[in-house]
Amino acid sequence: MSQQTAALIGGRYRLDTVVGSGSSAEVWSAWDVVLNRTVAVKLLGPQEDEEKSRIWREARLAALLGDSVAVPMYDFGDDGEHCFLVMELVLDSSLQTFLSETPTPPPSVALTLGVHLLDALAQTHALSIVHRDVKPANIFVGGSPERIDRVRLVDFGLAFLGDGNNASLGRLTDDRVLSGTPMYLSPEQARGSDIHVETDVYSAGCVLYEVACGVPPFSGTLGELLSKHMYVPAISLRERQPKLPLEFTELVDGMLAKVPKYRPSAAECHARLARIIKTNPMATASFTDRSLQSSRHDRMVDAGEAVQEAKDERLISVRASGPLPEWLSKTLNDAGVHFANADGVPDFELISMEQLNEDAPDEILPRVAWIENASEISVSTLIESGVRFAISRDTSPKGLLRSLTRLAKRPKRNGGNS
């Protein structure tokens, strides 16, 4: 690709060095000549229509999830020679790299990784998105050899929407086709059965098992792995690591249940892990309360700190037509988000699901939707309607502020991709 480094991808991105590669793509560090910043460019060759759809979905799903779960997406497109995704250049390493450099991490790593990983999956599942390929290579972590204090999921190429809408934004691969990585494959994936959010919980259990004791639950050839995932109970984590808290080993064993309905949800896993960390000296010795507070499902948010962050960064403004529910007004207020004056130009258009179905999208303002009942939304509707972020009852003020601040720094749409 030496000739490509001299050209601009999409007329805008100058490639520098390869920072990662896979079977079908390379990831480059690059320079955005328009905004004068360093970015990462995931570069693929000419693609068929189905593969282009997969790339488009990966970008939009990651953008919908926000930067607390996924790597922020800046742009995507096809310049005739390449399909490409443009995203933040992440300095964190993958969990796979972390484990290769720290082959025997202390027990606190499994606990701290778990609370962040399951929080990310809980947020993903709240939008009815199933990742379907949770493994160390797709989990980027930050922290130290003693603890993990942030997690981001990458590679949503196999993800699908589990909200019942399997059209343009639903499953691009049949559930009955083997997809995922065999060492972390769920029993239902191995047998080609229907896949739901419980699949990600099983895969996450495999990851935590490996981090906790140094080996995955199962090993062997592809055929042996499929058979073991379907039929063979894993050796209890308690037997392999008796020094770990009993509550943790029991939770991981439960995540590895062969029958999906017997696995705890990602949100339940996160809540239990947060309680274990708060009450267990092994974890609290190297894990801060701030890390727990930053989680979406079990936290007490410091509203004053969120407002101060808004002042330090910039004031985020929205425009809303119609009354807002009390919970939404409180969340916006605690986050330091204000409403634009009649003569002002807001950063975002705030819109309800009912308005989303009725109104034509604003050509300039990015849309933020508020959702009364997250279990009843159609994620495909949000994405197709140009929604950049969705606010629900479990959205924290800090998470809202962080996501809107980052989105407000991106160029607004003007008839093209941003």
How would you sum up this structure, described in words?
There is one protein chain. The chain is α/β, with parallel strands linked by helices and 418 residues long. Helix content is 38%, strand content 18%. The protein contains 16 helices and 16 strands. Strands 1-2-3-4-6-5 form a six-stranded antiparallel β-sheet, with helices on one face. 43% of the residues are buried.
Which terms summarize this structure?
single chain, 418 residues, alpha/beta, six-stranded antiparallel β-sheet, five-stranded parallel β-sheet, 18% strand, globular, disordered N terminus, disordered C terminus
Roughly what is the average pLDDT, rounded to an integer?
A: 77
What is the makeup of the main sheet?
A: 6 strands, antiparallel
For the secondary structure, the number of strands is 16
Specify the number of helices: 16
Q: How large is the radius of gyration?
A: 21 Å
The spatial strand order of the largest sheet comes to 1-2-3-4-6-5
Structural class: alpha/beta
How far apart the termini lie comes to 26 Å
Task: Assign an overall shape.
Answer: globular
Beta fraction: 15-25%
Kindly state the percentage of residues in helix.
25-40%
